[in-house]
Design goal:
This is Regulator of polyketide synthase expression. InterPro entries: CdaR-like_regulators, CdaR_GGDEF, PucR_C-HTH_dom, PucR_C-HTH_sf. Belongs to the CdaR family. It comes from Nonomuraea dietziae. It holds the Pfam family HTH_30. By secondary structure, the chain is of the alpha+beta class. It folds into four domains: 115 residues, 3-Layer(aba) Sandwich (Udp-n-acetylmuramoylalanyl-d-glutamate--2,6- Diaminopimelate Ligase, Chain: A, domain 1), CATH 3.40.1390.20; 132 residues, Beta-Lactamase (2-Layer Sandwich), CATH 3.30.450; 151 residues, Reverse transcriptase/Diguanylate cyclase domain (Alpha-Beta Plaits, 2-Layer Sandwich), CATH 3.30.70; 85 residues, Orthogonal Bundle (Arc Repressor Mutant, subunit A). Helices cover 47% and strands 16% of the residues. A five-stranded mixed sheet has the order 3-8-7-6-5, with helices on both faces. Helix 12 crosses helix 13. The radius of gyration is 30 Å and the shape is globular. About 2% of the residues have low confidence.
Length: 522
């Protein structure tokens, strides 16, 4: 049951699921209508909260519950922690407001977004003809009955927004995984199949992946803009003869819902990204901002920044990278604030920079983004900050680390500021020397000139010898020479430059390293 902009408390609880919303007190049952989520702020007047879902980010108390009841709040969501749940439930019953418990690993920002998306999904919308469209789950069931196959409605990010639950209709493992994970499972054929659906003006049959049931699909559009897709599974029995017409009608009915969902998601993302930017820059009440993302103000955190190897990322690519990071952290129950700031994906993670799992999540995300969008993505990891107050320094370090992994002195996909200190030093030296002749001057110039005049390979021999840490037998093996031949060659080079002088060796090593890196980066 729904009303404009609201859903029943029962719909809210069922949609979020017991893992995200555990009822502690329901003084008026599951029927009260609930609406807009609101982050609790003790400094703000408790006004305009009739029917609101109040997210209490701080320590919950009986006083807060009493004030919520007086303000007409429909439901209060808390993270009980060490508080007495029974005492909170008693206070909620006395206040006449429902009380739900959220898990500690779920950030308040994520819960806010989930509730907003739910309201956008199931609140009645107006279709282009001015009649009220059914909510997406009801629509999915109606279409499934008419076409004779299970139906799913998805957004452009392949998230499953709604699905049918008609008894007796068969689904395959691909659909089952999509429902459980609320996202279409990854498969090599996804890009091609979805592209075909989005290009078509009407319905399209999809027979990939071959090991699963075929599907009849259609793109959902509004004013020429693609908003999502609808998919009907054909199991053992063929779909109804008018299945194509039914899907076309369903696409028209679903359009206003998907448009609202996209608007709600965009607004929620904009607010989240803005708050993340404040945290990264140390602006505003950072403790409250951290709490809104589910982070503890005094715990160690690490900043991670993702970007393409070359050029700048477009907004969609950066958003996709941030969404993948967020999903991975939630899956591993790692608390993190993620989003897009200044065109790059960022995360503030409640983990040590050296954590193996953190590195694995980052590299996996980079691989997936590069496979889907191209661009050879990289990640920089700042040093672990003692608290969120030190996040701005960690953000600068993450940016520097990203600059290093995108530079010529490392081939890693991701790296921390600490382990990339040498690469950062070399980049600074190379930048300082680039406009000066000393980068390719003596002593390297003397050896290179001899090679040019006499056809020798002294520069290459020096490069291998220095790269082998001045180990003659090892360098000779790499050069396919006898060690005595290399020793003789080094003596000849010593007649050109002071090869025994440690400063000469240092300068020569820097010249060879910087010039080689510069050539690779061109």
């Amino acid at each position: 049951m729904t009303a404009r902009g609201r859903v029943t408390l029962g719909v809210l609880i069922d949609s979020l699921g017991p893992g995200l919303a555990r009822p502690l007190a329901l003084p008026h049952g599951r029927e009260p209508l609930v609406g807009t989520p609101v982050i609790y702020d003790p400094e703000e007047p408790q006004a305009g909260l009739d029917g609101a879902v109040l997210l209490v980010t701080g320590r919950p108390s009986a006083e807060i519950l009493a004030r919520a009841g007086e303000s007409g709040v429909a439901v209060v969501v808390v993270k009980p922690g060490t508080c007495d749940e029974q005492a909170l439930a008693t206070a909620a019953k006395a206040a006449g407001t429902a009380l739900l418990a959220a898990p500690p690993e779920l950030s308040w920002g994520q819960l806010y977004t989930l509730i907003e998306a739910l309201l956008a999904m199931v609140a009645p919308a107006e279709d282009p003809r001015g009649t009220r469209a059914a909510d997406l789950f009801v629509l999915a069931n109606e279409v499934a009955v008419r076409v004779g196959g299970a139906v799913a409605i998805e957004d452009l990010a392949m998230r499953v927004l709604a699905y049918s639950t008609v008894e007796g209709q068969r689904i395959d493992e691909l659909r089952r995984e999509g429902i459980l994970g609320r996202r279409v499972p990854e498969h090599p054929t996804n890009a091609e199949e979805y592209a075909a659906v989005l290009r078509a003006d009407g319905v399209v049959w999809s027979h990939e992946p071959r090991e699963f049931y075929p599907r009849l699909a259609i793109a959902v559009r509004a004013h020429g803009e693609v908003l999502g897709t609808i998919w009907a599974v054909q199991a053992e029995e063929p779909l109804a003869h008018d299945a194509a017409a039914v899907l076309e009608e369903a696409a028209t009915a679903a359009a206003p819902h998907l448009a609202r969902i996209n608007l709600a998601a965009d607004e929620a993302r904009r607010r989240r990204d803005e708050c993340l930017g404040w945290l990264l820059r140390g602006i505003g009440a950072v403790d409250e901002l951290a709490t809104s993302f589910g982070l503890l103000p005094r715990e160690p955190v690490t900043v991670v920044t993702l970007g393409p190897y070359a050029g700048s990322a477009d907004a969609f690519a950066a958003t996709h990278a941030a969404d993948l990071l967020r999903t991975a952290f939630v899956a591993y129950r790692i608390r993190a604030a993620t989003g897009v700031v200044d065109g790059r994906a960022h995360a503030i993670v409640a983990a040590e920079a050296s954590a193996t799992l953190l590195r694995r999540i980052i590299v996996d995300t980079l691989t997936r983004v590069s496979e889907r969008l191209g661009g050879g993505w990289r990640a920089g990891i700042g040093r672990t900050a003692a608290s969120v107050a030190a996040v701005p320094a960690g953000a600068r370090q993450a940016e520097e680390a990203l600059r290093a992994v995108c530079g010529p002195f490392t081939q890693e996909l991701a790296g921390s500021h600490e382990e990339l200190s040498a690469a950062l030093f070399l980049m600074d030296v190379e930048a300082a020397l680039r406009p000066k002749p000393s980068l390719s001057g003596e002593p390297l110039a003397l050896v290179a000139a001899h090679d040019a005049r006499h056809g020798t390979h002294y520069v290459h021999s020096l490069t291998v010898w220095i790269g082998a840490h001045y180990d003659v037998p090892r360098a000779a093996e790499l050069l396919s020479l006898h060690p005595n031949t290399l020793r003789y060659r080094l003596r000849r080079i010593g007649e050109l430059i002071a090869l025994d002088d440690p400063d000469t060796r240092l300068v020569l090593a820097l010249q060879l390293r910087l010039n080689a890196a510069t050539k690779r980066s061109r």
